[in-house]
């Protein structure tokens, strides 16, 4: 599913995000969404979320939905 649309992402979803420090390398981080930080309904780089681990990144892939 598209990680650039806020309505597609829910707390508890399993996602892959790209953290700011990995934008150049493209390294993805797997995690479970704890909260959604982007207020806009869409963002072309991906919706910014915080994972249960405390890491923050923009959603690139939604792996499963809760």
Poorly predicted parts: none
Average pLDDT works out at: 95
Structural class of the helices, strands and pairings? mainly beta
Between the first and last Cα atoms, what is the distance in angstroms?
13 Å
Report the strand count. Answer: 4
Q: Any overview of this molecule?
A:
- The chain has 66 residues and is an all-beta fold.
- It contains no helices and four strands.
- It has strands at residues 14-18, 28-36, 48-51, 56-64.
- Strand 3 (48-51) and strand 4 (56-64) form a beta hairpin.
Task: Put the structure in a nutshell.
The chain has 66 residues and is an all-beta fold.
What features would you highlight for this structure?
66 residues; mainly beta; 4 strands; globular
What is the topological layout?
Elements: E1 14-18, E2 28-36, E3 48-51, E4 56-64
